Structures are given as C-alpha cells and as structure tokens.
Amino acid sequence: MISIQNLSKVFRTEEVETAALNQIALQINEGDFISVMGPSGCGKSTLLNIIGLLDGITSGSYKLLGQEINGLKENEKAKLRKQQIGFIFQNFNLIDELSVYDNIELPLIYNNVGSAERKKRVEAIAERLSLSHRLKHYPQQLSGGQQQRVAVARALITNPKIILADEPTGNLDSRNGNEVMELLTDLHANGATIMMVTHSDYDASFSQRTIHMKDGVILSEKQNARNVDVLVDAKEN
Ligand code: ADP
Ligand code: MG
C-alpha cells in the first residue's frame, strides 16, 4: 500500500537547513497497524505528513497505492489525500466555529458528496462513536475525549484506506486515551491500515509493529507481544 525508498526531507529557510528525514525505507501493507516512536524532533510528524501528502519529499521515492507521488500534480495529490487518507492530530484540529455535525460533515463536502448522503453518513458515524447527542454542540462545549472522538469521526467519514494519527492520545487523560486506543484497535480489526505516532509504550503495544526513529533515521523495528499472543492463540484454536 505504501512503499518508501531512500526518502530524505530537508527543510530549508534562509538561514538554516534541517535534515528532518535521512534515507528512510519503509513498507506498509494493507491492514497493518504501525506505531512510530522516538524523541521530539526526530522526524515522526514529518514522515506522517509526507505519507499523508501534506508535505513533499526532497529526494527518494514514495509510492502510495502503486503511484509514485513525485510524478503527481498538486490537484492529483489533493484528490488522493481527500479520498484515501484520514488524519487524527494531537490537538484535535476541529474548527471551533462549526458544530460537531458540520465538523464531521466537512470532508464529505470537499469530496462533493450529495446532502442526503452526507446526512446519512454523519448520523451513522456519530452513532458509532457515541456522538449522536452532541451533534449540535460546538467543540469548546465538549470534553477532550469527546473532541478527539469528533476528530476520529471526521477522519473516518470518507472511509479512507489509511488512517494517520499523530500522538492521538497526547492531550487526553488515560481514560479518554484508552477510549481512543480502543477505537483505533476496533478500526484496525475492521480492516483499516493505521500509522500512529506515540510517546506511550502502552499505546504502541496495541499496534502490530513499532518503528523507533532517531535523528531522521529508522533505528529499529519490532513486532509487538500483544499481537504475537494473538497469532499464537489463533494457531492453538
Ligand atoms: P517530531 O514529530 O519527531 O517531533 P518533526 O517531524 O516535527 O519531529 O521535526 C523534525 C525536524 O524537522 C525538527 O528538527 C524540526 O524542527 C524540523 N521541522 C519540522 N517541520 C519544519 C518546517 N516546516 N520548517 C523547518 N523545519 C521543520
Ligand atoms: Mg511531532
């Protein structure tokens, strides 16, 4: 689904050059659940933003769904992003001036979905994420956990192939954080491909494999025990 080879990213301003990613190689298959860990500034968000087509690469190759991204025009990238990718951010990134309903509906408007279909889909996803009674509220009237559920609903409303989550539990207490992790685990069980940045070993343990980054490179990758157990159980039964 995603194939990255020799990928480097340099941020240039007039005074400084920052090598944010250095010769990254990474394969992500359909149905994977990958977590990315590493110290602040090591390039985790940059990698996620590149995969999510929010940012371009400096050199190397990035193929998404078989297409080399470097060859695409901006409008083709925007279309891929709108249709295939759902983003979840640490600070939720909801629009304060819009109701919960309007926030969740927004990606459907961007994708030119008709109004009857939009209503049906917003109501269905709100039901699934226990937000049906909050649709007329505004983000500031909700708890952090509820706001992140709205952000998850907005990310899922277009049925994206890939969900990218950048420290999705970073601003949540442990109860709300666990709720978001259960949600992601549930989505993964239903076939979603997920890549999640986290500082929490516990959150990472929900994923199948964890990549450790440092200074713009991938240091190591490991399979997670929770999922190894699941594989063993499946064999025994
Ligand atoms: P992480 O998410 O792991 O904390 P980032 O990917 O945000 O790290 O940043 C990696 C490096 O790239 C850092 O040194 C950061 O300062 C730099 N960087 C990130 N975004 C930009 C940008 N838009 N312009 C210049 N430098 C940036
Ligand atoms: Mg970051």
Automatic annotation (TrEMBL):
GO terms of molecular function: ATP binding; ATP hydrolysis activity; transmembrane transporter activity
Gene Ontology CC terms, in alphabetical order: membrane protein complex; plasma membrane
Keywords noted in UniProt: ATP-binding, Nucleotide-binding, Transport
CDD domains: ABC_MJ0796_LolCDE_FtsE (cd03255)
UniProt xrefs under SMART domains: AAA (SM00382)
InterPro entries attached to this UniProt entry: AAA+_ATPase, ABC_transporter-like_ATP-bd, ABC_transporter-like_CS, ABC_transpr_LolD-like, MacB-like_ATP-bd, P-loop_NTPase
Pfam families, per database record: ABC_tran
Protein origin, superkingdom: Bacteria
Keyword ATP-binding listed: yes
SUPFAM superfamilies associated with the record: P-loop containing nucleoside triphosphate hydrolases (SSF52540)
Start and end residues of each ABC transporter domain: 2-234
Gene3D superfamilies referenced in this protein's UniProt entry, alphabetically: P-loop containing nucleotide triphosphate hydrolases
Family assignment from sequence similarity: Belongs to the ABC transporter superfamily. Macrolide exporter (TC 3.A.1.122) family.
Entry protein name: ABC transporter ATP-binding protein
Organism: Flavobacterium supellecticarium
Upper lineage: Bacteria, Pseudomonadati, Bacteroidota, Flavobacteriia, Flavobacteriales
